[in-house]
Amino acid sequence: MSTTTDPIRSAGAAPSAADRPSWGALGVLLAGIFITTLDFFIVNVAIPSVQLGLHAGPAAVQFVVAGFGLAYAAGLITGGRLGDLHGRRRMFRVGLGVFTVASAACGLAPTPGVLIAARVLQGLGAALLSPQVLAILNVVYTGRHRTAAFNAFGLAMGFGGVFGQLIGGVLIQADIAGLGWRSIFLINVPIGVLAMALAGRLVPESGASGGARLDLTGTVLVSLGLVAIVLPLVQGQQQGWPLWTWLCLAAAVPLLAGFVLHQRRTGDRGGSPLVDLAMFRQRAFSAGVAIGLVYALTTASFFLVLALYLQQGHGLSALGSGLVFLPLGLGYFVSSSKAGQVAARLGRQVLAAGGLIVAVGYLILAVTAEEIGATGAVAWLVPGLLIAGAGMGLVMAPLPATVLAGVRQEHAAAASGVLNAAQQAGGAIGVALVGVVFYRTLGSLGGLAGAFSISELVLAGIGVAVACLVQLLPKAATG
Q1: CA of 20: how far to CAs of 28, 93, 194, 205, 206, in Å?
Q2: How many whole angstroms separate alpha carbon 108 and alpha carbon 427?
Q3: Cβ(401)–Cβ(340) under 8 Å?
Q4: CB 407 within 8 A of CB 282
Q5: pTM for the complete prediction?
Q6: pLDDT digits (tens, 9 = 90+) for 217-229
């Protein structure tokens, strides 16, 4: 892969009129974040086909899904810091290159072991490129252009998550060139190659200068700490919460505490910590990260229980259940495209409004599921899905700009990595929490419909909690 010959923009320098990026740069960056978000969700619909095609057992299938998420969560903070140190465009291209090669390896994998290894490599590539996207948007766009760029980021990320199941179902159903499930990975290759080529021309370089080195001790501590949280949460429900899951969660406490102490000592000695802890003294950042983590409890867990309810309860195919997600995506598209205008009027309360609207949508879905059970028409779910999607758009689009607003530019990618890591951890916690509720009520409260309904009530409560947490933000945090 070629590397840029442009000098890295010095910390704190804004792009001049001559080198201000075109909107083509935004398209390149969003292509990267879209395919990485898509691959986090799309693999779920391919699991039956992978099991059949590769003769994969249950444990292997679990790690096909979990391998990506583990590597992604563990590498986000380090990936962000590498962008600050060595150039964000450069790390975006490197990460995209790794992700593209790994996607090809996934699509051509002859055995479950090769597929798992390639999925881990995909996660590492995603962890390297994802923080750079938010950091570059935060540095090179200003004013109303910055608002539009962050709204577009929210759209791309939301579409990757909301429509992942639908896109995967369409690709598998189409069976392009007889590739079956392999097409969901191979489709990334031409997109990745094109985006890498265009990034060198359209995306300006930015990053910190001064020859600082990566904090290797901090990298090891935070990576192990995040794995110790995410791994047991991802695997615990399926394995019945064996002893090792609790030992891992217990080990996460000293690992992350040691990381914080090491970062503080490194900063006090004039070194270059992986995370500048001074960022957490800014209320917009610390409260925003907390909001991102709590809101993330709802997203992956909602997609999971809805898919289970539709496919196992109503007997829909992966493509059929994916089509039910369309109203959710429509609500998301409309609200996220208008989120900047709403934020200009409501300020930080746009996030609170989003959390409350999400809660209303989940409440409607809970009542609807109780009424239609597992035999009624799924069309009755449309109003709840539209409202929930609208709430999602009002949270996801403005949140990154809120969190990064006061962060110094030399730490922009590291701060983005912290936010993304918090959201990944929140997603894993949410799946574990809601998964426990769903499966424990499955046999006692009206089967799948009852379990889905109770899960939606829990998710609605989390939406209200998001609205409460928003009140911790400074009044000028958004807008």
Answers
A1: 15, 19, 21, 11, 12
A2: 29
A3: no
A4: yes
A5: 0.83
A6: 988 999 999 889 8
